Amino acid sequence: MATATANRQPLATALTRSRRAKDRAFSLFLMLCAALALAPLAVIAVFVLVRGAAALDLNFFTKLPPGSLDPPHTGGISNAIVGTGMIVGLAVLISVPLGIATAVYLSEYGRGRTATVIRFTANTLLSTPSIIAGLVVAATVVTWTHSFSAYAASLAISILMWPVVTRATEEVLRLVPQELREGALALGVPRWKVVLKIVIPTAGSGILTGVMLAVSRGLGETAAILLTALGNNYMNTSYGRPTAWITGYIYFWARQPQAVLQQLAWGAGLTLMMAVLLLSISARVVSVRRQRRLT
Amino acid sequence: MRTRKLAVVAGIVSLAVIAAACSSKSSTSTGGGGATTNTGVPLTGAGSTFAAPIYTQWGKDFNAVESGAQVNYQAIGSGGGIDAITKQAADFGASDAPLQADALAAMPADAVQIPTVLGGIAIAYNLPGLTAPLNLDGPTAAGVFQGTITTWNDPAIATLNPGVSLPSTTIRPVHRSDDSGSTFVFTNYLSSQSATFKKTIGADSTVQWPSGAAGKDGSDGVAGYLVQTEGAVGYISYDYAVANNLGSAAVKASDGSFVAPSVASISAAGAGLKFPIGPDTNVLNSSVAGAYPIATTTYVIVYKAQADQAKGQTLVDFLHWGLTKGQDTAASLNYAPLPGGIASQALAALATLTYNGQPITPSAGA
Amino acid sequence: MIGLTLASGIVLIGVLGLVLAVLASGGAPTFAKFGLRFLTSSRWDPPHQEFGALPFVFGTLLTSFVALVLSVPVALGLAILLNEPISGKITGPLATFIDVLAAIPSVVFGLVGLFVLAPWLEQHVEPLLHTIFGWVPGLGMLFPALSRGVNGRVIGAGGDYFVAGVVLSIMILPIVTAISREVVATVPRDLREAAKALGATRYETIRMAVLPYSAQGIAGAAFLGLGRALGETIAVSMVIGGGASVGASLFAPGQSIASAIASQFNGATNALQRSSLLALGVVLVAMSFGLAAVSKALVGRGARRLEPTPADLADPDPGSPVTAEAA
After folding, report:
1. Pick from C156, A264, A256: nearest CA to B224
2. Average of pLDDT values for A205-217?
3. What is the reported pLDDT for A10?
4. Among B160, B159, B161, which residue's Cα sits nearest to residue B131?
5. Tell me, what's the pLDDT at B13?
6. Is A153 on the interface with B (CB under 8 A)?
7. Is residue B46 within 8 angstroms of chain A, CB to CB?
8. Could you tell me which of A8, B22, B154, B156 has the fewest CB atoms within 10 Å of its CB?
9. Nearest CA to C267 among B197, B294, B97, B57?
């Protein structure tokens, strides 16, 4: 009896077995994808943490970069930290107000062709390679002012940060319920006040998230600043002079044969990663809190 | 509330812009030139990675002489240095190659090229197990970099090195991928030694190397590759080769002897340097006895008419110091000081710098 | 208010105009002299005043192609996974980690790529690929044998097209995943449920209902990823090897358009060389914009937006039971 059943497998069962096998294989593939996505992050996190931590000490944050013949743990990236702060700081001051203003136009006032062109421009600049931004500012501002400078670098990365702010802000402004606007307008509040005092504050934390994303982008920038800020072995607090910045040192020291400089590169990488992660997590916390508040 | 915030932001932006405009011209020097002392102002120099160690060291040492003089030297390659000085974005440019005709034509004002130190381009290699420097001659080196000689135990290399057991490792040539004065010097040397090299590759700061060869940015990048890659060979400044414990080839000189790079052999080559510096000036293949064939002078390029008094004074002080007291540092960093006669001619070239038509004389102590 | 905001929009247009003007005017002499030959010649030879962009275009395309081949399947798998009704405790953190990957600066990718990934790939993965594919006629040329030193270690070039492609694939994974995820999310529930009703397994549902519907959008996501890969400069220049080869070998050192511009721009004094570098910039920008446009056209119908936005960050899993509870 058993043999007979075994030989006379109904068609449906035979299909099910191979189908189940395929399904299981597919599930395995999905899990493999998840692992492949997480593996690089784990590798980067571990190596940056371990090799970078070895470089961090008080000197790292307070001293100027060492020469190639100096012993380890004598130098640091103090000038680069200040330089990055200056460059990204000014870039935020330029790109955030402009980015929000453009987003406000697109979301609140923009109709028809002008808005389409502006939106197209923002998308195009968003996908512009960063070296192009650096190239353009180097060919114009640096050449005309006869100086590599921190503010030229700020201008270059503002070109890249502006569309990030605009895109993020426009998205969030659109999510503000139309009833809020209509209610205020019905009460006789002038249009500009509705935008400034109701729409923008409601979208407030979303805009903040967008700003954090832009700052994150600015911190990680290298190519655009390479062509505009030149670099500086000394501490510089003047916007009109060449300045050091963190990613530039990582890029430069990574290819040096001396171990002391390579160690500094890892330390700088860790510092940068911590800053960027802090921003990403804060952005997420702000968003989630906002989501909870709105719902 | 919101408006106030906006106003604050606008205020900060305006302040930043004003600060940027004002800050580029601050100076703190007291006294002009002549015999008075100068505290100096920050200077920016850009260019050659070949000479970077010496200018960086000079910058540090000079800071002790003039406390306000922070010489910020950025090694972006000779081409970058020439570009920076042409754009007037740096106070001095540093190049291993003298200005070529089109670069000279692009300069907005009269510039002077001042040799500062001598250096050698070493043919450095990574061959563990070799006890003595490898002997190479011009045509063989050209073959290696052209890709016609592919293994280390090739007969062409073996004949030059009788009795040395050469491995059969593949030769991995590496070149500079950025615009480089070192490339300029080395390709000029190879072009003078091999007609095929001259025809197929030629001599310039960027050339088309054979397919498959690795390229790195900066002398440091090349040194890094050489350290990590067995069988690799590349051209870098002699001091980088020493600093990274790389072997340097002994190159065949015009009298048939094989000369390894050293402070003495490089210095000997400098004796033939001729002023005024022209596009063809070089100290390659020097016929002086014991001279290293692939030696080069490295130049600082500055404008004759300085636009800023404080900067011009500090610049003259720095270069004067470098051409006199700084020459002692050269040897310790594996560069060669300028021979006496050459140094005085360089100082004479420096003396042509002016501000408002008046020559700038070095301050006391510089 | 409208005046101010409109003005900022106009300034933005002005900025783009400036970018295009600088590139076009700078590159004009090169295009005037070489015409289309600029794109087909492989001689980048400053001493002889000959500039052909083919080696760099080739390098850019090859590394980007490798990046796509490696990342699109994984992105697809992730997109499907994140849209399945699995516990939000898995999908939430997974999505977060992918977003974190997107935030890592390019230079850090280059640092880890150069010191960790490149040696590992050169020593272990590349010989393996040679063993698996090296004998295949035609395709095998891409995976040549690697020379070894006296102690048996593979002698690498400090980077090559393959390593650059792998690094790029990791860098574009987040964006391709994000768009693909949106695209897969728009598959109507009816389609899925119909498949389920017919007795399909999960694999079959996806194969029959989800994939055909989202194929076009996934292609759009891939194009967007490609556009990103093209413009990536720093990480690529740190691991691509810097060589000058146009040969068909993945294990050879090379240059991409962006890495060539980065290496040579500051130093180019030869006027035609500088113009050629700007012309390279034009080529790069044209390729990126073109791809972004194609991507938008393909994705436009399927997904709501092209970029992960703050709304994405706030909403770890659109349509998952977790957010439904929170709402």
Report:
1. A256
2. 89
3. 54
4. B161
5. 58
6. no
7. yes
8. A8
9. B97
